[in-house]
Design brief:
Blueprint lengths: L4 H27 L4 H12 L1 H8 L1 H4 L5 H8 L6 H26 L14 H9 L2 H4 L1 H13 L4 H14 L2 H6 L8 H26 L2 H17 L4 H24 L1
């Protein structure tokens, strides 16, 4: 029987991240009462789990290829400044527009929803960049994308990748969210739609440029906004609608071309 390496990787990544959240993050928070910066570092450690799972367990997931050849292929495409900037602005811009629209509906200045926190701005940017954007992409848009692309066409492959990536965050929706009442429903729906939409955008760029740096910047453009936002559930509803509309338009335009 042929080994299903994709299934092995998905199951392993889910088990690993849930164990890290429960035993590492849970212990740091509940037992040692770690300060926010330390908890941020712990979250970064957890966000890198898809990558070090892949590299450490390489022979279990891609026995017919070397790590070096795989990594070289993932970053083989040319780096072009304008498309790189666009990859960042796609997710960053949709989030900023969502904030602007949300502030109009609420009748408050957009700046009132920005919380700079207690961590220095340069450190916040650095920690945000070295979390999911650099920690997850080799696993999700490197290995997972290639495996799904072997089985399906562009759109179905992107949707499958997005759903796997989305539900990998399931436990975080419970332990790291302020929305624990009825608002949890639109919040979860927003996560599903937005994360899947971002995956489609990533694959649009990767289909053309074949370099994970584009998906890293897309990921970073999304994450960096949420480092400083303190918003209500209405923001996530707007974010969901915008991502769905813009991503659908991008896919239709790409198909015409």
């Amino acid at each position: 029987m042929k080994t299903n390496y994709l299934k092995k990787y998905i199951i392993s990544s889910y088990v690993l991240v849930w164990m890290l959240i429960i035993f590492v993050a849970g212990t740091a928070s509940l037992v040692f009462h770690a300060p926010p910066v330390i908890m941020w570092l712990v979250r970064n450690l957890i966000s890198w789990s898809p990558t070090y799972l892949l590299l450490i367990g390489w022979k279990h997931f891609r026995p017919g290829e070397t790590r070096r050849a795989f990594i070289k292929r993932c970053f083989s495409g040319k780096i072009k400044p304008v498309p790189m900037l666009c990859s960042f602005l796609v997710t960053f811009g949709i989030s900023v527009l969502s904030l602007f629209l949300f502030s109009l509906f609420e009748g408050k200045p957009a700046a009132s929803y920005i919380d700079w926190g207690t961590t220095a701005l340069p450190l916040s940017i650095f920690l945000s960049f070295t979390s999911g954007p650099t920690g997850e992409e080799l696993g999700w848009r490197g290995f997972l994308r290639e495996e799904f692309n072997k089985r399906y066409g562009f759109l179905k492959s992107s949707l499958c990748q997005g759903l796997v990536w989305c539900f990998w965050h399931t436990l975080l929706w419970v332990v790291d969210s302020d929305f624990t009442d009825w608002r949890a429903v639109p919040y979860i729906i927003s996560n599903i739609v937005v994360i899947t939409s971002i995956t489609v955008w990533m694959n649009l760029f990767l289909e053309r440029y074949n370099n994970l740096l584009y998906s890293v910047l897309l990921h970073f453009g999304f994450n960096i906004v949420f480092v400083f936002l303190d918003v209500g559930i209405g923001f996530f509803v707007i974010l969901t609608v915008l991502h769905l509309a813009v991503t659908s338009a991008a896919v239709l335009l790409a198909r015409r071309r």
